[in-house]
Amino acid sequence: MILLLAIARWLAEGGLMISFGYTMMRTLLRIHLPALKSQRINLVGILVITGSTVLWFCLATEQMAGDPNAMIAPPLLVLAASQTLFGQIFLVRLVVLILAVAGILLNWRDGILAMLLGTALVLISVTSHAAAASPAHFTAIGAVGDGLHLLTGGFWIGGLGLLAEFYAKRPKDFSLAVTIFSEWGVIAVTVLILTGMLNAATILLGGEGHDTGAYLAVLGIKLVLVAAMVTLALTNHFRLLPRIADGDAAILLHKNIVREMMLGIFVVGLAALLGLLQPTM
Questions:
Q1: Which of 8, 7, 40, 10 has the alpha carbon at shortest distance from 22?
Q2: Greatest alpha-carbon span in the chain
Q3: Strand positions, DSSP E, the chain
Q4: In the chain, where the domains are located
Q5: Which of 2, 100, 116, 236 has the fewest beta carbons under 10 Å from its own?
């Protein structure tokens, strides 16, 4: 059950992060490339995100109720949606995602879509481990830190996706896109690392009892992969970007971008699993 729940959360959370970062990066690029038309995010992708969000809620309801039939029992689903914080936040996120679907169909600007997707993404942090472990039970502290963590992580992974697309479809603008992403990426990665450290410290030190082995093991693997991503990012920024005019450097830069993005997607999967594991006993 926990594996299926983790996959549903991975699709919902990871899809939101990538879509937000992609549209946010396009918004920044349009300042320098006015001719860049507002491009619709893949409608199927947003529908998958919405569907996996609903599945995540249904599976979580089943877990909370301890009843294998809870996810197909309307009275229990209505009760979970109306009487629990997780359910109430789910309803708000669902409304925001429906608005995003409408925005795609009506071809709204990237900036508006990025705002909607970012809002849906930040709402996840309200019921996170970091929010629950906030000092003095002041949930906003952990929620804000985790929200920034999700937004900056999304910008990093989604922005890499846009760079890969530019390399394939707009090679003439690839250098400009990488330069702009690199400038904003330094800020995003710095905030990501700081909020990640703050979240880990809050969760592990703020909870009662001792840390669980499963949580620490998954967290350790996640940190190793993040370190690999940072290493690739530093290589791209300091070694390859200055030589981007060189064809070989551009090819290697593109390969590193793809590797970095794949690692990021896997990291999001581990983060989704961490959100379901008990940090302390």
A1: 40
A2: 63
A3: none
A4: 2-274
A5: 2
The pTM for the full model equals: 0.93
Q: Render 232-274 in DSSP notation, one character per residue.
A: HHHHIIIIIGGGTTSHHHHHHHHHHHHHHHHHHHHHHHHHHHH
Burial of residue 121, with CB atoms counted within 10 A of its CB: 0-12 exposed, 13-18 middle, 19 or more buried: buried
pLDDT (tens place) for every residue of the chain, 281 residues total? 778 899 999 999 999 999 999 999 999 998 888 877 766 667 888 999 999 999 999 999 988 887 777 777 788 888 999 999 999 999 999 999 999 999 988 888 889 999 999 999 999 999 988 888 776 566 778 889 999 999 999 999 999 999 999 999 999 999 999 999 999 999 999 999 999 999 888 888 766 656 688 899 999 999 999 999 999 999 999 999 999 888 888 999 999 999 999 999 999 999 999 988 888 77
Give the end-to-end CA distance of the chain in Å, rounded to a whole number: 20
Phi (first) and psi of residue 39, to 5 degrees = -110, 135
Residues contacting residue 99 through CB under 8 Å, at least 6 positions apart: 116
DSSP assignment, residue 82? H
Give the type of residue at 213. Answer: G
